[in-house]
């Protein structure tokens, strides 16, 4: 399964990147391809292209705040959680996403 | 009802606005702190030839901090309505400043401005030739006018009274009440490691800082600074007691968690706490309680002019810098000693990391309330 996602937290220096790390590790453990864009205080890093979003089976937004470019995901399956959920239960979250995507 | 709260997303909009505000408070807070440390004072207006360099610095910072209600209001309105929310949020925030409704006025005004802009976008229908006028004229004009007038004539005055009352109560606190407030803030700021309780206390403490009361936010952040260092100290104390309290993985985690703590990032220590949540929180909570109590009592509620920065906050505390340092030291010691004492002694196999191999099974249950799915 191909997963894309965005992480963003309030202060934008810690939870954003922890959530990215946890999601990437959990997805790799489940054998998925994953790319996570981070929107920290420093700005957008590891930016997703529209092509990558279109190719993905499902998108994960682990965000506590309003993000830039949410409209890019308009016509996709999107799962939205807080960064806390992504950090605390990443593997279960990925499993849940498999269920939702039906793969 | 629960659905309404979730849809309205009060917390999300406030957090978005805070995320835009923090760099402004940090930048301006350091500038005013340096200016004031060298005898500058924030001026109403800078008249050429009538001010010195440090007055200029203090004024730069002071002016920016004085406009925090505008920033929070604009941020909230932007979070609700997107770009069209910026104009009404800005106007309403300035209205809140003019009528002395302060930061709380800015927060309330931001929600009103944002939802009005959202409502105008959604419900006001215009003929197609006027489509272009919608974002440039109609939304900003109607939403700004309505929410600005609401602020001036309806909300502003009661909020100004309330803000004034709250400020007077908190600045008038004496020793014992300061001790209690500090202890409570210290505990609450660490009890869920950056979770919802911490965020709520942070929003409250930031509100107070915008009103010029710096103690609470300092108590909160110094706890976040000291806790990871405390877990590091626990390792050394446990070694003295001939106890092994950390696995090899955890020791690796500590090597980055401790320096992260020094600059105010508590999250590095989350993996350690997660492995033994009750004992971790007891140790951190007790440390936070002592830190908050020491700080708030000895500084009489004074604190740093910046809301973030770990040990970098200390220089902005003026002559109280050593109290901040003492408070951190107390927190580190209490957390370190308590954790080293109450943590179980690990066997050699556990230290080698056998117990963490099944991490995915020990993971917390997925919080289904927190998940929104759209297809």
From TrEMBL, chain A:
Instruction: Check the record and name the Pfam families matching this protein.
Output: PTS_IIB
Q: What is its EC number?
A: 2.7.1.69
Query: Would I find Transferase among this entry's keywords?
Result: yes
Q: Which GO terms describe its cellular component?
A: plasma membrane
Name the InterPro entries for this protein. Answer: Bacterial_PTS_Sugar_Transport, PTS_EIIB-like_sf, PTS_EIIB_2, PTS_EIIB_2/3, PTS_IIB_fruc
GO molecular function term, any single one: protein-N(PI)-phosphohistidine-fructose phosphotransferase system transporter activity
Q: Name one GO biological process term.
A: phosphoenolpyruvate-dependent sugar phosphotransferase system
Q: What class of enzyme is it?
A: transferase
Q: What is this protein called?
A: PTS system fructose-specific IIB component
PANTHER family associated with the record: FRUCTOSE-LIKE PERMEASE, FRUCTOSE-LIKE PTS SYSTEM EIIBC COMPONENT-RELATED
Q: Which NCBIfam families does this UniProt record tie to the protein?
A: FRU
Organism this protein belongs to: Bifidobacterium bohemicum DSM 22767
Q: Which residues form the PTS EIIB type-2 domain?
A: 1-99
> What domain of life?
Bacteria
- Keyword set for this entry? Kinase, Phosphoprotein, Phosphotransferase system, Sugar transport, Transferase, Transport
TrEMBL record, chain B:
The molecular function GO annotations come to:
carbohydrate:proton symporter activity; protein-N(PI)-phosphohistidine-sugar phosphotransferase activity; protein-phosphocysteine-sugar phosphotransferase activity
What region holds the PTS EIIC type-2 domain? Answer: 10-341
Record has Signal as a keyword: no
EC class name: transferase
Q: Which UniProt keywords apply?
A: Cell membrane, Membrane, Phosphotransferase system, Sugar transport, Transferase, Transmembrane, Transmembrane helix, Transport
PROSITE patterns this protein is in? PTS_EIIC_TYPE_2 (PS51104)
Cellular component terms, GO, for this chain's entry?
Answer: plasma membrane
What's the protein's topology in the membrane?
Multi-pass membrane protein
Instruction: Give the residue spans that cross the bilayer.
Output: 20-39, 60-81, 93-121, 133-155, 175-194, 281-301, 321-342
- What is a biological process (GO) this protein takes part in? phosphoenolpyruvate-dependent sugar phosphotransferase system
Cell compartments where the protein resides: Cell inner membrane
Q: What is its main location?
A: membrane
* UniProt-listed Enzyme Commission number(s): 2.7.1.69
Name of the featured protein: PTS system IIC component
List the taxonomic lineage: Bacteria, Bacillati, Actinomycetota, Actinomycetes, Bifidobacteriales
């Amino acid at each position: 399964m191909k997963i894309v996602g965005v992480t963003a937290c309030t202060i934008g220096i810690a939870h954003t990147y922890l959530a990215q790390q946890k999601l990437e590790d959990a997805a790799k453990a489940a054998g998925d391809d994953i790319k996570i864009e981070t929107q920290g205080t420093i700005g957008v890093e590891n930016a997703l292209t529209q092509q990558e979003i279109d190719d993905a089976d499902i998108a994960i937004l682990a965000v506590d705040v309003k993000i830039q470019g949410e409209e890019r995901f308009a016509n996709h399956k999107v799962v939205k959680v807080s960064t806390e959920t992504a950090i605390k239960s990443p593997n279960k979250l990925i499993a849940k996403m498999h269920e939702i995507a039906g793969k | 009802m629960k659905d309404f709260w979730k849809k309205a997303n009060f917390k999300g909009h406030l957090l978005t606005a805070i995320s835009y505000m923090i760099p402004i408070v940090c930048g301006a807070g350091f500038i005013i702190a340096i200016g004031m440390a060298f005898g500058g004072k924030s001026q109403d207006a800078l008249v050429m030839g009538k001010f010195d360099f440090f007055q200029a610095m203090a004024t730069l910072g002071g002016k920016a901090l004085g406009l925090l209600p505008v920033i929070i209001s604009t941020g909230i309105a932007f979070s609700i309505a997107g770009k069209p929310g910026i104009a009404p949020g800005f106007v309403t925030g300035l209205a809140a400043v003019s009528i002395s409704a302060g930061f709380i006025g800015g927060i309330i005004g931001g929600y009103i401005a944002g939802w009005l802009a959202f409502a105008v976008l959604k419900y006001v229908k215009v003929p197609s030739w006027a489509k272009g006028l919608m974002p440039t004229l109609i939304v900003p004009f109607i939403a700004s006018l309505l929410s600005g007038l609401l602020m001036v004539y309806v909300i502003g005055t009661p909020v100004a009274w309330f803000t004034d009352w709250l400020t007077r109560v908190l600045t008038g606190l004496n020793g014992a009440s300061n001790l209690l407030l500090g202890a409570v803030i210290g505990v609450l700021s660490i009890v869920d490691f950056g979770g919802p309780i911490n965020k709520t206390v942070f929003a409250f403490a930031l509100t107070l800082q915008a009103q010029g009361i710096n103690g609470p936010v300092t108590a909160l952040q110094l706890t976040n600074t000291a806790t990871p260092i405390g877990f590091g100290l626990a390792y050394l104390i446990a070694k003295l007691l001939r106890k092994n309290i950390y696995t090899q993985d955890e020791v690796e985690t500590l090597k980055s968690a401790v320096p992260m703590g020094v600059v105010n990032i508590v999250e590095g220590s989350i993996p350690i706490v997660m492995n033994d949540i009750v004992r971790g929180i007891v140790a951190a909570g007790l440390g936070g309680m002592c830190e908050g109590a020491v700080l708030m009592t000895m500084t009489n509620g004074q604190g740093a002019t910046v809301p973030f920065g770990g040990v970098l906050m200390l220089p902005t505390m003026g002559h109280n810098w050593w109290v901040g340092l003492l408070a951190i030291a107390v927190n580190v010691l209490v957390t370190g000693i308590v954790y080293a004492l109450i943590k179980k002694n690990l066997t050699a196999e556990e230290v080698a990391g056998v117990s963490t191999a099944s991490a995915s099974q020990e993971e917390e249950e997925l919080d289904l309330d927190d998940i929104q799915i759209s297809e």
